[in-house]
Design goal:
Structural class: alpha+beta
Largest sheet: 6 strands, mixed
Oligomer: single chain
Order of helices and strands: HEEEHEHEE
Shape: globular
Helix content: 25-40%
Radius of gyration: 19 Å
Number of helices: 3
Strand content: 25-35%
Strand order of the largest sheet: 1-2-3-4-6-5
């Protein structure tokens, strides 16, 4: 049997969504999902008295009640006032209420590694030279013991 030539082509965003949906179906068949929506975006924020957003956290609750923190941001003038901690604790509480058992994230050496470690997160992986001269840390926290 001869091997057929299959050229690599650029995909459209519609094609990319199709790929993602096929992987989601595969994953659900391999390890059945424990939440209704495979990917649920959950965001919380804090506004100042004028209504300006000064801090926020965006997360994805995925497939098996796992939570990935996509973004945590506190406006520079409001840092070191406990807002980041307040947001993370709030997110963790909501995640536990929803049945989540694990929360994880990644951060760079010039961002918040020590902050997350103070909140009980532990490094489980490091990517060196990402970006060059720096490290990217992958951290997790069990919500069962939290």
């Amino acid at each position: 049997m001869t091997r057929q030539e299959h050229p690599v082509v650029e995909l459209s965003s519609t094609d990319a969504k199709l790929l993602e949906s096929r992987l989601v179906l595969f994953n659900d068949a391999a390890v059945p999902f424990t939440q209704r929506e495979p990917f649920l975006r959950v965001q919380y924020g804090i506004r100042d008295p004028n209504g300006t957003l000064i801090a926020g956290v965006a997360s994805t609750h995925y497939c098996w009640n796992m939570v990935y923190i996509d973004v945590l941001w506190v406006e520079e003038g409001h840092r070191r006032q406990g807002l980041g901690t307040k947001l993370i604790r709030f997110l963790e509480g909501k995640a536990k209420e929803a049945g989540s058992t694990l929360i994880h994230l990644d951060t760079f050496d010039f961002q918040g590694k020590a902050f997350y470690e103070r909140l009980g997160y532990r490094v489980f992986g490091v990517l060196d030279e990402c970006p060059p001269g720096h490290q990217r840390y992958f951290l997790k926290k069990s919500l069962n013991a939290a």
